[in-house]
From TrEMBL:
Transmembrane intervals: 6-24, 31-49, 61-81, 102-120, 149-166, 186-206, 239-259, 265-288, 300-322, 334-357, 388-411, 423-447
Protein name: Gluconate permease
The entry's keywords: Cell membrane, Membrane, Transmembrane, Transmembrane helix, Transport
Similarity-based family: Belongs to the GntP permease family.
Name of a matching Pfam family: GntP_permease
Keyword Cell cycle tagged: no
Classification via NCBIfam families: gntP
GO-annotated molecular function: gluconate transmembrane transporter activity
Lipid bilayer topology: Multi-pass membrane protein
InterPro entries listed in its UniProt record: Glcn_transporter
Species of the source: Sphingobium limneticum
Length: 448
């Protein structure tokens, strides 16, 4: 490494460290803290202020151009599932079918299904109170704090895995676009990697982390409105529709040309924005029936959806700005040189960078966006299939959630754990997801 490389690394460390201090100590919103970090990186790396400002605008604009729509539509679908109690009905049905012995597994797979089109925060709000009430209804002697955690932690594992590894979540979707990965293959590989990862980090790990952790009454309760809950079939249709549309569009490429010509329309309907818009339009009558024209319901859906949307969109936009400044300053080129020297596997390097940014910023989505941006050149130079790089980055973006992660406090509030208990359960679980995910990516990438 040259003196310029060391200067760039120092600039990146100082800029990200400043973001941490401003977010944690200064109590600033991640949007402001990350923007300050981006300008600091540019200044210390020797970029002219005008060039740094242009990089900030370019990075934020590129991220928000399409992702803002994905975020808004995803939150809208989540609000519908929450307000109609559709997701709650699906979860309760699964837990009834599973019985006491299979309840942790039902909790896990329900979270994976419900979490496919939803943001982590939305899925958390939907599922944890339902799972907690199901645990409280277990037979006497089997409904203590340990039993509740053994139902709730698998749900968290399922939500985390699909959030980080499976499109159309914004993080993996943006990484797919940045690295030129195939969306359908990434979705397929994400499920292949994600399901065993969630099993290990969920029901199996909870056997060791849940005992001895005490729970207080949860601080937060989900919002609901007075409507007739939809059937399980209708809810499943609304949940799975965007995933099916995206997968169908990718499957067209596998058909013989003569047949594929009749299904070319699937290529545009499988675009994540279009797929989510179709899912939202279909979900309205499925979940609310004839009451879709009720002004109160429409206002409740979009008020519930847009309340968190602003903060999420601003944070990922600032993450895109930080990413672009790092790329403009030359960090991407430096990582390519390091990887070409054979010192470290490109997949391991991508995971490690994602881990560092996750620990620094507290945001899995920001870690994914930033890492994918600086890894573009490395993917092209190394010849590694971009789908595996996307999954390695997504796995690293979950490593050890702690106090600078808003999800840490949200989980703490819904679980009812104290600080040590949250670290012992949630933070360890996220770390196991990150490590097991990496190991499975390394194994699978050598097989497929």
């Amino acid at each position: 490494m040259s003196p310029a490389d060391y200067r760039l690394v120092l600039a990146a460390i100082v800029g990200i460290a400043l973001s941490i201090v401003l977010i944690i100590r200064g109590r600033l919103h991640p949007f402001v803290g990350l923007l300050c970090g981006a300008f600091t990186v540019g200044l210390l790396a020797g970029l002219p202020m005008e060039e740094t400002a242009k990089a900030v605008e370019k990075g934020a604009g590129a991220i928000l151009g399409g992702t803002g729509l994905v975020v808004a539509l995803g939150l809208g679908l989540g609000a519908m599932l929450q307000l109609s109690d559709g997701a709650g009905g699906l979860a309760r049905a699964a837990l009834r079918l599973s019985g006491v012995r299979g309840a942790p597994w039902a909790s896990l797979f329900t979270a994976i299904v419900i979490g496919l089109p939803l943001f982590f925060e939305t899925g958390l709000v939907l599922l944890l109170p339902i799972v907690a009430s199901a645990a409280a209804a277990l037979p006497a002697g089997q409904n203590g704090d340990t039993a509740k955690l053994r139902l709730m932690l698998p749900a968290l594992a399922g939500l985390s895995v699909v959030h980080a590894l499976v499109p159309p979540h914004p993080g993996p979707l943006l990484a797919v676009n940045a690295l030129g990965a195939n969306l359908g293959l990434t979705l397929l590989y994400g499920l292949i990697i994600g399901i065993p990862t969630a099993i290990i980090a969920g029901p199996l790990l909870a056997r060791f982390t849940a005992p001895g952790v005490k729970l207080n009454p949860p601080l937060l309760d989900p919002v609901k409105i007075d409507v007739v809950a939809p059937s399980v079939g209708r809810t499943l249709t609304a949940v799975l529709l965007p995933v099916v549309l995206i997968a169908a569009g990718q499957a067209v490429a596998l058909l013989p040309p003569a047949i594929a010509a009749h299904f070319h329309w699937l290529s545009w309907i499988s675009d994540p924005v279009v797929a989510l818009l179709v899912a939202v339009l279909v979900a309205l009558p499925l979940l609310f029936g004839r009451r879709i024209t009720d002004r109160t319901i429409q206002n409740a859906i979009w008020t519930e959806a847009m309340t968190p949307a602003g903060g999420i969109i601003l944070a990922i936009g600032a993450g895109g700005a930080l990413k672009q400044v790092l790329v403009t300053a030359g960090l991407s080129d430096m990582l390519v040189r390091i990887a070409q020297g054979g010192a470290i596997s490109p997949i391991l390097l991508a995971w490690g960078v994602s881990v560092c940014i996750r620990l620094a910023t507290g945001s899995a989505t920001v870690a994914t966006i930033t890492t994918a941006g600086v890894m573009q050149g490395l993917v092209a130079a190394s010849g590694v299939e971009p789908e595996w790089m996307v999954l390695a980055i997504g796995a690293g973006s979950l490593f050890f959630s702690h106090v600078n992660d808003p999800g840490f406090w949200l989980v703490k509030s819904y679980l009812g754990t104290d600080m040590p208990g949250t670290f012992r359960t949630w933070s360890i679980m996220e770390t196991v997801v990150a490590i097991v995910g990496l190991l499975l990516v390394l194994v699978a990438s050598s097989i497929f």
